[in-house]
Amino acid sequence: MPLTDLYADERVAMAHDGALFLCGWADAPTMVQMRALGEHGRRVEAVVGPMSLINVAFGGVPRFGDDVRKISAEFTRDASLFAGSRAHVVTIPGFKGAAVMAFINTFLLLGRPPRPTKVFRALDEAVRWTASLRSPVGDVAAMHDAIEWLRLGLYPTSAVAGS
């Protein structure tokens, strides 16, 4: 799966392969990363058509400002952004993971997504769900490889994501 890098900093890495947009988080977003997500998502979607998003929280401290909460709900209700589907995956264990899940569930409740959207604790389940919604059906192994490549870009010196 040939990924095209779109944006990366110390908190996030974003890439796409055709109509699959991948976003991996090493820490909670600020408005810088949220603006980048919206800008790159819209730019690529304008070229390739409706995209499926796999949005993975690998680690970090779950601190979400009011501005991030607000724009997350706005992105959620925007029918033209990631119009194929959205899978949000939280791989962070314990209370930190529960806090991220609460954040995601809140912006989904406030945003009322107009496209297929689910929250997952297991990456494999999210990949299989997303692959099943793509036409033709997505290559699950290639999608896993692409997500691992994204994660390694965030955590280049370790085989295990930080938290």
Condensed summary:
The protein has 163 residues and is of the alpha/beta class.
Write a structural description:
Residues 159-163 have low confidence and may be disordered. The protein has a six-stranded mixed β-sheet with strand order 1-2-3-4-5-6, with helices on both faces. The protein has a single domain, classed as STAS domain (Transcription Regulator spoIIAA, 2-Layer Sandwich). With 163 residues, the protein is of the alpha/beta class. It has helices at 31-48, 66-77, 94-111, 123-133, 140-154, and strands at residues 4-8, 12-17, 20-25, 52-57, 85-90, 117-120. The protein is built from five helices and six strands. 37% of the residues are buried.
Main attributes?
163 residues, 5 helices, 6 strands
The fold-level CATH name is: Transcription Regulator spoIIAA
Q: Between the first and last Cα atoms, what is the distance in angstroms?
A: 27 Å
| Mean pLDDT rating | 92
**Cα-based radius of gyration, to the nearest Å:** 14 Å
Query: Which architecture per CATH?
Result: 2-Layer Sandwich
| Order of strands, widest sheet | 1-2-3-4-5-6
Q: Helices and strands, in N-to-C order?
A: EEEHEHEHEHH
Given helix and strand content, the structural type is: alpha/beta
Count the E strands: 6
Low-confidence stretches: 159-163
Number of helices, counting only DSSP H or I runs of 4 residues or more = 5
Give the strand content.
15-25%
Molecular shape: globular
* Residue share in helix: 40-55%
